[in-house]
Amino acid sequence: MYLALLVIFLQCSELYSQKRVFTFNTVDIKVQPSVKVKNGAPLSITCHADISKSTDFQLKHNFTVFKDGKLVFMTVSDKRDARYEIPVARSSDTGDYECTVEAGGKTKSSNSLHVWVTGMTKPILTAEKKEVLEGEVVKLRCELPEEVPPLYFFFRKMKMNSTPKEKSVFESQRNFSVVEFPVEEGDNILQFDCFARRNVKLEFESSEHSKKTLVTVREPFIKPTLNVKPSSNITEGDRIQIECSTVVARMRDIEIILQKNKTILNSVRDEKLLKYSAVATLEDSGEYQCKVEQGRASKTTKLNIVVSELFPKPILAASVIKLDENKELTLSCSINGFQKANFSILRKNSNADIWLKNSKNLTMRVNVNDTGSYICKAEVKGIVKESKPVTINVYAPVSKPTLSVVSGLPEVVLGKSLLLICRSVMGTPPITFTFYKGNKIKETVVNDTYATFLDENIGQNDKGGYRCDAKNNHSSGMKTSNILNITVIVPIKNASLGSVPYGEVEDGSETVFLCSVKEGSWPIRFRIFRKTDREVLLFEKNENAHRVVWRREAMNRQDTGTYYCMASNRANVDVKSHPITISVILAAWQKGVIAAFVLILIAGAVTLTLWWLLCKKKKAKGPSMEMSGSALATNSPNEKLTRQHNDGDYYSGSGYIEGSENHMKSTDESKDSVENRHSRLQGHPDAT
User: Fold this and answer.
1) For all residues of the chain together, what is the average pLDDT?
2) Given this model, what pLDDT does residue 589 score?
3) End-to-end CA separation in angstroms for the chain
C-alpha cells in the first residue's frame, strides 16, 4: 500500500515539475524620450524580459540596472518590465546602461545602451577678495556642483582694451578648481569668469560661462618720475644729475632702482627719492630706467639721454709696423680738428698698460722684446679717450738652419719613409721653411722654430741632395742648410747555408759552413744555429760582405743535427735560410780498428778450434803416436812444412789475408770519396 502511494506521489511531482518550465528569450533595455536628452529634462530607462513558459504560473523577476558597470537601480516584480526614472537628467547621467534579469535561478542581460545627456550646468565663480593692490594675486574658485569629474576648467582675466588672459586646469578627482592671477602694473578694474568642458565619446562638450566677477585694483605707489640735469645739450665733461622719485601709500619694503642697459647704477630702500651723479662721457648716452618695486608690484619709467662728443678718439700712427731689430720706430698721436689735449703713449700689457712717455710723439730704437700693441691716450677737461691699438712686430734674422733625420742617424730602410726636421735656432717667428730634394721644392711650411718633411717610399737612388731654407720678415733674407746625404739600407734577401762535406761527415773531421745572402747593405750579421731538441747558437760574426765561412774542426757524434743560418743588418729584419741536415759517421781508421778487432776475435776462435781438434786426435792415436815421435823428430824442416801444407786438418789463413785486402780496398775507396766531397760545396748555391 505504501509503495503504491509513493509511486503516485512521485508521478504527481513529475507532472508538477513539467508544468513550471520557462526560458529567457531576450532582455531588452529602452530609453525615453531618446538616448540623447538635454540637461534638466526627464529620463526614463525601461528593462523588459521576454520569457517563454510551459504553463501560466507566477514568476518573481529581479531587475538590476547598471551604468558604466556600477549599480544604479534594482527592483523585484512579478511583471516582465521595470522602469528606472530620472526626473531631472544631468550630464553626470551620461554613460553606458545595461539591464540584468534573474528569475528561478536563471539570469540574462541586455545589450549595452549609451545615453548622452547633452549640456552642462552653469559653473559658479567666486573671488577671495573684491579689492586688491598691484602686486598681489586674485584667488578664484570655479565649481560645478551637479557635475562629476574628470573635468577641464578654464579661467579668464579681462580688463579694458586688452586681450583676455586664460588659464586652464584639469581636475580628475573633483568638480571644482582653484587658480591665482597676479595683479600687474596698469591693472585697474578686472573682470573674471570661468567655464568647464568634459570629454564624451571622444567629443568635447562645454558649459556656459559663469557670471562675471568684478575685482577692483588699487595702486600701492604711483609711477616713478625720472629727471636729469641739465635736461638738454649735455656734453662730455659736464656733470649730470639724475633723480627718480615716487609717491607711496605704505613705505615699508619699497625699493627704487636706476639702470642703464640692464646695468644697475644705484638703488635705495624704504625711501621715496633716488639720486645719481657722474661726469658725462660719450659712453653715458643711452636709455635709463627707473624702477619702483614693492612686493610683486612694479612700475617703471624710462628716459633717453644723449651726450655730445667733446673731442673724438685720438689716432696713433706708426712709421712702420714691421721692422728689423736695432731699427728706429716713431709713434705719433693726434686728434682730428683738436690740438689742446694732454697726450701719453703706452704699451698694452695683460696686467696693466706700461707708460712710455707723456707726449704726442715717441721715437725709439727697437729690439725683439718691443714687439707688441701700442696705444695713446688724450685727456681734455677730465675726459680721457684711448686710441685703437697699433701692433708692432720687430724681427731678428733667422740663423742658418740645420737639417737632420728625426730618428737620429742619416739612414733609412729601402721602401720606408724618411722624416726630416729643419730647425732654425734664432729668428723671430713666423718662419717659412722650404724643403728641397735635389733642386725640386718638395714642401713649404710656416711655423715658429722648426718644420718637418716626410719623404715616403724611399728608393735606392734617394741617397742625397736634401736641404732646407729658412726665412722670416727680416730684411736679411733667406738662409740655407748644408746638404744632407742619406744612406739607404737594403734589407737582407734570400739567406742560404751550405757545407763541405755535405750530408755525412766523418767523426773527427773538419766541416766548412758557408752562409750567404743574395743582397743587403753591409755590415751583415751572420749567425749559424744547430737545432736538435733545442736551438744552439754556434757562430756569430759581422761581415762587410754577402757571405761568411765558418770552419768546424773535429766534428763528433753530438754535432749530428739540423743546421741553419740567419742574416740581418740595420734594417732589423732577420732572414732565415733553409735547414740542412748533417750526420756524423765513423772515420775510416775507426772502421779499420773495429775490423781488426773483429778479425783478431775470429783468429782466436780458429786457433782454439784447431788446438781442440789436435788434442782430440792425440788422444785417439794413443801409444802409436809416442812410438813415432822420435822418428818425426829427426825429419828436416822442409818436410814439416810440406806436411803442414798438405794436411787437411790445418786452417790456411787465406780468409784473413783476403779480408785484410778487402779492408784496405774499402779504406782507399772511402778516402777517394772524402776527397771527392771536399772538392765541392754540396747544397749551397754559391759553392764552387
Assistant:
1) 82
2) 65
3) 146
β-strands 213-218, 22-32 pairing = unpaired
> pLDDT tens-digit profile of 456-478?
878 877 766 899 999 998 988 89
What whole-number distance in Å separates Cα of residue 548 and Cα of residue 536?
Answer: 18
Task: Give residue 656's region: left, alpha or beta (phi > 0; psi -120 to 50).
Answer: alpha
Which residues are CB-contacts of 685 (< 8 A; sequence separation ≥ 6)?
Answer: 496, 498, 516
Q: pLDDT tens digit string along 82-132?
A: 999 999 888 888 889 999 999 988 999 999 999 988 888 899 999 999 998
515 contacts 567 by C-beta, under 8 angstroms: yes
CB 517 within 8 A of CB 575: yes
Place of cell 735635389: 438
DSSP symbol at 78: S
For the beta carbon of residue 192, count every other beta carbon within 10 angstroms. 23
% helix, strand, coil for the chain, step of 5:
15, 50, 35
Long-range contacts of the stretch 440-446 (C-beta < 8 A, 24+): none
CB 108 within 8 A of CB 22: no
Place of cell 636729469: 228
The overall pTM is greater than 0.85? no
SS3 519: strand
Q: Are strands 440-447 and 431-437 parallel, antiparallel or unpaired?
A: antiparallel
**Given this model, what pLDDT does residue 638 score?**
41
B/e letters for 329-353, b = 16+ CB within 10 Å, e = fewer, are bebbbbbeeeeebebbbbbeeeeeb
pLDDT (tens digit per residue) in 351-382: 888 899 999 999 999 999 999 999 999 998 88
